[in-house]
Amino acid sequence: MRECPHLAELPRPEPVPLNETCPECAADGTHPVQLRLCLLCGHVGCCDSSAGRHATQHFKDTGHAVMRTFEPGEKWRWCFVDGSIV
Question: Is the pTM of this model over 0.90?
């Protein structure tokens, strides 16, 4: 794993979450397994264990590389570009 400049450039304060759950899963009638928060725009998407993989799709659609877990009690962040976690 290489050094990740994207994680160091995280916006502070974090954006306000746009939803409480994954809106794409809600529209599809599927259940999100784990939620992720985009740290650039506040989009909430489901993880790759969910049927829709909407957090990853959000990255592919927008290029927003850094997200964090949106699960209670968890605090890690992930960069899609560099495959880095903190």
Answer: yes
